[in-house]
Design goal:
Length: about 110
């Protein structure tokens, strides 16, 4: 029972609560979809970047006048020890060894 000076707002409260719950559900779905899309885009960018690096490395391999970045120390040492590639086709050395002291001397630190 309501008193004459009171308003019965239960129906309005239920209606507003229902709207709020539906809006929260829509917002949650939108946030989840946004996050999923961002993850897909970032994954695609990583995949494309790694594919481009592999394509570049495949293009560089076999060319004598191009530098190969991304070689580990072991791979570079193995290449030097193999003796297969010491000079470019023009007769210039492909790799040289410098001690730390020689390198510092080149940069005028020693």
């Amino acid at each position: 029972m309501t008193w004459p000076f009171e308003n019965d707002t239960s129906a309005v409260e239920k209606k507003l609560a229902g709207r709020s719950i539906r809006a929260d559900k829509r917002r949650s779905v939108f946030v989840i979809l946004t996050i999923a899309l961002a993850v897909c885009l970032m994954g695609s960018l990583c995949f494309l970047y790694s594919a481009q690096q592999l394509k570049t490395l495949d293009g560089i391999l076999g060319q004598y006048q191009a530098g190969c970045g991304g070689l580990t120390r072991e791979e570079a040492a193995r290449l030097v020890m193999s003796g297969q590639v010491k000079y470019c086709p023009h007769g210039r050395p492909v790799a040289i060894e410098l001690t730390k002291k020689q390198l510092e001397k080149q940069f005028k630190r020693a």
